[in-house]
Write a structure and sequence with these properties.
With about 130 residues, the chain is of the alpha/beta class. It has four helices and five strands; from the N terminus they run H-E-E-H-H-E-H-E-E.
Amino acid sequence: MEYTNFMYEALEEAAKAYEMNEVPIGAVITHKGIIIARAHNKREVDNNPIAHAEVEAMQIAAEALGTWNLSECTLYVTVEPCPMCAGTILQTQMSTVVYGCSEPNSGSFGSVIDLSKEASITSQKSLKVY
C-alpha cells in the first residue's frame, strides 16, 4: 500500500527532528502520488512557534505548486495534527490527511476535537482523514 511508503518517508523526517532535539514529528505531502514536500518540526531550532512539520510542509508544497490550494494533495504526518495545523490544513483545502498515531493532548482530527467535522468553516467540502 502506498500509504505505508509515504508514512515511512514522514518517519524519516521525524527522525531528523529527533536528532535536533525537537518533538519528533515529520510530514510528507504528495500530489498525484509524487512527494512534493517533506518537513519536520523546527520550532526550537528556528525559535518559531508555528514551525510545525505540517505547516512547514504545506509552505513547501504551496511553493512547489505555485498555489495555496492543495486540494489535490495528501498529507502524511506521523502524529495527529494540533488545532493550528488542522486549521491550516482546512484552509489549504487538502483532500486527505493520513496520520500515524493519535495525540491525546491536542489531537484535532478525532482525539480531542475533530475539526474535519467542522469543514463548513471553510470552503472545504470533504476532507478525508485516516
